[in-house]
Design a protein that fits this description.
539 residues, alpha+beta, Rossmann fold, Jelly Rolls, 3 domains, six-stranded antiparallel beta sheet, 27 strands, elongated, disordered N terminus, disordered C terminus, ConA-like_dom_sf, LamG-like jellyroll fold domain-containing protein
Length: 539
């Protein structure tokens, strides 16, 4: 999209009761149009310090049901700093900083020497990602152009209300969202939202973990004070080292309700089993199971060749709201299979390293234990990510302190519940950028949260785009050649992974580089390489 001529204009909102000339705007057609007053708000509102507040910001008493509102309480950014930062948008090449696997497109210091107020905003730093911006700079321009064009076409008509609520799903560290909002601000006054909502994933409970022995036994996470219900979504992650054959028959974790006679009810658990040949020298098997009720209604998914004694690896077990069960090992999908979701209820015992049905104890070590009451992917496991997100949201809310109210939610379900309770949170523009795995139930979620003229755009990844037409939400296609090529790269049926990630019969011991198919079957398979092709044989 062509950039506006001259330096970018600084948007300094007019304060009620103050003339437009005193706030930096000139009257007439050449001045910057000011946003219309939000409907239903009083003529004048004051902050805690007695100063007049912007009429389009949500009142201080408004809170996000099930989410968090981000409020900036420090001094506002100066017009000079904002103008200098906005000149970064005019650059053909952004700065790149290495920061915990993220690439940060803004410098830590501005050319004037002032600290950059958005330096912790970032985006995906995976050089192998098909949307990695330094490698594919055309992707950023295509995303911003698609959002602006669709917004101008569908949201600025006389019968539409423009953008009041901007929503971003899987927003990461907000750099792309900041750029999109700045492009919308420059495109039309109707596209300047008065609130921004970010939907992310948060950890429900976490602990450092320890070594497990028969003498010390396991422990109950309820002792940490966690009592929230789990289900229908669930995830468990830990760095696990297995001792050896002494692990056979034990459980990594067992979350459920148990009576005094050992009867299991509504439990979520992982069994540690030997190989199919019961040879202690071969890599073992993990079986992830979800039980509904107290009967035999159990769905399970098994990953053969998934652990080797003495080798630590990062494991993630997750089940979605639709019952899709997955096991990740070192960030790579080992197996995915349709099962059923766990019931949403509080479980009396959250055992780690032991079972509620037997006296067996896991022998080995579990570190960096994390539990979510949401289905997460491998990119959300790193504990540092929560701190990085906190810093990014703090800087983001500081930048837009005079322009919009900023909220965050930990899951799609919590945001949808907030919309049902307060229709102000309905999405006029919903974007999903760089989410490379389809989100189970996302289409149904869109239908619940879109506003009367809302649109939902899926960019840089798989999924559909939607718009509301009357009482219906209909699918529409985005015609963009660059994004079409990007989405095609994310849908390749195979990928390469480096040493130590995956081998012919298991994930952990192979030292050379092999082709991996997109999904591992639920049983134990041996993958044999011939001179012409790959084949899988059932053991």
């Amino acid at each position: 999209m062509a950039q506006p001529a001259g330096p970018p204009q600084v948007f300094s909102p007019a304060v009620p009761g103050v003339s437009s000339t005193s706030s930096g705007a000139t009257s007439g057609s050449g001045g910057v149009k000011r946003r219309a007053r939000s409907a239903g708000l009083p003529k004048q509102r004051y902050s805690e310090q007695g100063q007049a507040a912007n009429p389009w910001l949500d009142p201080p008493e408004i809170r996000a049901p099930g989410g968090r509102r981000w409020t900036h309480r420090g001094p506002p950014l100066t017009a000079e700093v904002r103008r200098e930062v906005r000149t970064l948008l005019q650059r053909q090449k952004h700065y790149e900083n290495d920061f915990s696997g993220w690439q940060m497109p803004f410098p830590f210091e501005l050319p004037s020497g002032a600290p950059c107020p958005i330096c912790t905003l970032g985006e995906c730093g995976d050089v192998n990602c098909p949307t990695y911006r330094p490698k594919y700079p055309e992707v950023r321009a295509a995303i911003e152009e698609a959002v602006v064009q669709q917004s101008l076409q569908l949201l600025t008509q006389p019968e539409n209300r423009g953008i009041k609520t901007y929503v971003s799903v899987g927003s990461g560290l907000l750099a792309q969202d900041w750029m999109i909002l700045e492009k919308l601000r420059a495109a039309a006054v109707e596209l300047q939202p008065c609130r921004a909502v970010f939907v992310e994933l948060r950890t429900a409970v976490a602990c450092e973990g320890r070594r497990f022995t028969p003498e010390e036994g396991g422990f109950d996470l309820c002792q940490l004070g966690f009592s929230a219900p789990l289900g229908p979504e669930f995830s468990f992650s830990a760095v696990i080292t297995f001792e050896g054959a002494s692990c056979h028959g034990s459980r990594l974790f067992d979350f459920g309700n148990f009576d005094g006679h050992g009867e299991e009810q509504d439990n979520i658990f992982v069994d540690v089993l030997p190989s199919a040949s019961v040879n202690p020298q071969e890599p073992g098997t993990l079986v992830f199971s979800v039980r509904r009720g107290s009967g035999e209604e159990v769905e399970m998914v098994a990953a053969g060749g998934s652990w080797i004694a003495g080798q630590p690896h990062l494991y993630l077990f997750t089940v979605s709201a639709t019952g899709m069960m997955r096991i990740y090992i070192d960030g790579q999908l080992a197996v995915s299979q349709q099962g059923h979701p766990p019931k949403r209820l509080e479980r009396k015992h959250l055992y780690v390293g032991k079972s509620g049905a037997s006296g067996s104890t896991f022998c080995g070590e579990m570190r960096k234990i994390q539990v979510w009451d949401y289905a997460v992917d491998s990119a959300s496991v790193d504990g540092v990510f929560a701190d990085e997100t906190e810093r990014a949201l703090t800087q983001f809310s500081s930048w837009f302190a005079q322009d919009m109210s900023v909220y965050s939610f930990a899951s799609l379900a919590s945001y949808a519940a907030a919309v049902a309770e307060d229709r102000r949170f309905e999405a006029d523009l919903l974007v999903q950028v760089d989410v490379h795995e389809e989100i189970d139930g996302y289409d149904d979620f869109v239908k619940k949260v879109l506003g009367p003229q809302g649109i939902a755009l899926t960019l840089g990844g798989p999924g559909k785009s939607w718009r509301r037409q009357g009482a219906k939400v209909v699918e529409f296609s985005l015609q963009n050649e660059v994004l079409a090529k990007t989405e095609a790269r994310t849908k390749l049926p195979w990928v390469f992974f480096g040493p130590g990630k995956v081998g012919q019969s298991h994930f952990c011991e192979e030292e050379s580089r092999f082709l991996r198919l997109s999904g591992w079957p639920s049983g134990r398979y041996q993958r044999r390489r011939s001179s012409h092709d790959w084949r899988a044989e059932r053991c």
